[in-house]
């Protein structure tokens, strides 16, 4: 009798062990490519928008970089944003999930098939569809489709610029702000703003800024800050009362011929965002995705 009990007990242990091994194997297949982060407290609803600047700044021939091409850096940053969104969802009670992520180009590409893929990146998660498999597909989709977007733009070699100013004017309130969410707009840009159809000037305020403009405005010497203050240089505010929007600007990449240019660009963006009522924002210069990954995730995951 005793012997039979021992055999049954050993059989039970083996069966449990096999079951745990299968569960572990299944879990490992679903693990993302980063270490799972445990977050405490109730998670707010997240509404993340990504705006791409597909101007010639991404041209690997015109602007080569030995460490990593700038368009590949963008793709890496986009993946970090999507992974942060995944981490957020996986640390939230399923009954409370009501979160969104989307990607925008302005102007939209003329390629209809590419537009359909971009539309597929407009994702909403609720308690009804937030399965682990679907959540973990987010960063894979963003990485794959973002790569197609950049490669198509580079192959076409038709860089019409990014109408960033008009996006803030006409679309940001409708597209990027949800009253029930924490709204974050991630802008991938070198910091310069230009589009052929949006060239407005009001005294020393403009809707554009290029290296040529910085030289023309004589903001290329040590007195640049005093000149901006005294002569009121800057971007024309594109909107107002954007108090429910946070902005994370990634990729500032100034013309190295002017040692003050990076500071001028950051000053322009800082004043512009503040003048539109945006109080929470960060502006970061270009860096490798491995260096920016933690910064991006910390910004999104820490309120």
UniProtKB/TrEMBL annotation:
It comes from Xanthomarina spongicola. This is VWFA domain-containing protein.
């Amino acid at each position: 009798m005793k012997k039979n009990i021992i055999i049954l007990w050993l059989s039970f242990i083996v069966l449990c062990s096999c079951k745990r091994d299968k569960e572990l194997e299944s879990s490992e297949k679903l693990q993302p490519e980063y270490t799972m982060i445990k977050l405490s407290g109730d998670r707010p609803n997240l509404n993340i928008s990504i705006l791409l600047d597909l101007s010639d700044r991404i041209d690997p021939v015109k602007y080569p970089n030995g460490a990593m091409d700038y368009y590949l850096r963008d793709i890496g940053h986009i993946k970090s944003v999507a992974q942060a969104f995944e981490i957020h969802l996986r640390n939230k009670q399923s009954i409370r999930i009501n979160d969104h992520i989307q990607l925008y180009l302005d102007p939209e590409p003329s390629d209809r098939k590419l537009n359909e893929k971009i539309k597929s990146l407009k994702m909403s998660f609720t308690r009804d569809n937030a399965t682990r498999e679907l959540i973990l597909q987010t960063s894979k989709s963003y990485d794959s489709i973002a790569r197609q977007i950049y490669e198509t733009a580079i192959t076409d070699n038709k860089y019409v610029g990014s109408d960033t100013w008009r996006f803030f004017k006409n679309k940001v309130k409708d597209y990027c702000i949800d009253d029930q969410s924490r709204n974050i707009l991630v802008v991938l840009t070198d910091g310069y703003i230009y589009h052929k159809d949006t060239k407005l000037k009001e005294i020393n305020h403009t809707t554009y800024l290029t290296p040529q403009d910085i030289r023309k405005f004589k903001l290329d010497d040590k007195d640049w800050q005093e000149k901006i203050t005294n002569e009121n240089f800057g971007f024309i505010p594109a909107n107002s009362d954007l108090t429910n929007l946070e902005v994370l600007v990634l990729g500032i990449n100034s013309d190295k011929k002017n040692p003050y240019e990076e500071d001028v660009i950051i000053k322009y963006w800082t004043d512009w965002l503040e003048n539109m009522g945006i109080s929470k924002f960060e502006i970061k210069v270009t860096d490798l995705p491995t260096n920016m990954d933690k910064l991006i995730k910390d910004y999104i995951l820490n309120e």
